[in-house]
Amino acid sequence: MHKFNYTHRQKLIKSDIGISTFVNDKNLCFYLHSLDLERYEFPEEAEISLEAKRLTTHMQFSLGTIANPEFRPHKNILSEFHDPSEIQFRVKIIEPATGMLLGEVDNLKAGSPNDDESGLGDSLLPIMSENLEDMVWFLDMTDTGPVLLINSNQIKSDVSTSDSFRALVFPQIIYQIFTHIYYIEKLDYDEEDTDYWVQLWYKFAIKEMGSQTLPPPIDAENTDIKDWITQATATFAKRLDCNRLYTKLMEG
Predict the structure, then answer these.
(1) Which residue in 74, 78, 144, 158 has its CB near the most CB atoms, within 10 A?
(2) Residue in 109, 97, 172, 115 with CA at minimum distance from that of residue 139
(3) pTM of the predicted model, to two decimals?
(4) In the chain, how many domains are there?
(5) Judgement on whether residues 68 and 175 belong to the same structural domain of the protein
(6) For residues 9 and 103, is the Cβ–Cβ distance under 8 A?
(7) Would you say residue 236 lies in a domain?
(8) How far apart are CA 159 and CA 173, in angstroms?
(9) Would residue 4 count as lying in a domain?
(10) DSSP code string of 3-44
């Protein structure tokens, strides 16, 4: 097992790595459908390592070297996992002679961040099943970003993608997340940061609202911050057409 030296470690950009999952002969497998590492100028002999994880479950895979990556999708069997949407991936680039960690990216999700109608997707808002007793859902603000928990007694995909759930819950999720960012994380918008979860959510809001409505700084007036959070929530609700979905739901 490598003992990693973190000197001069580069932070990989999530969009440079694409991971997909599929089922082959009843086995859940993964493959890298995109891997763009040229900009980092890693040595050709550097090793590519991938870790799949959920809570206390971990699996490690060796994917060859920078010069000769081994994609071998049918051999990358995720035997310890059942639900691909609950798996997070970590990719590391390692100098084999010294064990130096040359680069890494954590908390990757399989699939595109724009796979669903909401535009949130698993990369921005992972969805996991947990025993929530009498609660249908709960927004867990972890150190690596928000995670939407759905009661394990529910069918996760049906609940989180239903019209009623989108109309009633998703705007509230947006409001909770940005309230947490401003009053707990207390981090300003940084245009150059393309990886930290807070900045990814800021960029999501700017994409929704338009670049003319940038997030106010942390030290802005409280009313300005609340107005911006409310506007971000309302803009998201309008794009999802939440009022129409709710009216349709009530009319049966």
Answers:
(1) 78
(2) 172
(3) 0.55
(4) 2
(5) no
(6) yes
(7) yes
(8) 15
(9) no
(10) --B-TTPEEPPGGGEEEEEEEETTEEEEEEEEE--GGGT--T
